[in-house]
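anyone seen this seq b4? input:
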Amino acid sequence: MQPNNRSQRRKATINFMLLFLLCTAIIVTTVFTSIKVPFSHNEVLLKDKKNTETRNRLQKEITDKMFSISQTIDSLDVNKVTDFTQLDIRIANEITMLSTLAVNAEVEDKKLYMNIATNLSSYYNAKKSARQKIDVNSNQDVLNQRIEVLTEQRDEYKDKYFNCISPKNNAK
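predicted toks r here
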């Protein structure tokens, strides 16, 4: 007792199996491909993240160094500095370290950081010159006050001298 349409059933079953295997292969390929693509994309993202973290760390180091140099330069306003050699060496070393950090920066940021180092150096030289001028002016003020005191003393002695001489002239 075999069915009359056995060949048609067999053909339909084989077609169904081929269609089923084809759909299963497409689904499996899609799943594995979609898993593999995110892993490769993940590697690219991790590399970008590492570059961004390195860049941010470098920017933080440069910013911290820049603020440190600015604070040292601004200390000229507070402290009376007479000998600038030690301060010159300290600021020159800090600016050199800032320039070294700037050299390690990415190409687009390198020029900016080098300009910051140059501007800080110029800022220090301007502050130093201004401080020296202020010191000269304060010395000049002290000298002017001393001259005024000496002038007053001279006038007093002059008056005393003429007072001493004039009674003798009047007595003759």
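The CA atoms of residues 65 and 97 lie 8 Å apart. The helical segments are 6-78, 85-103, 107-171. kinda curious what u guys think
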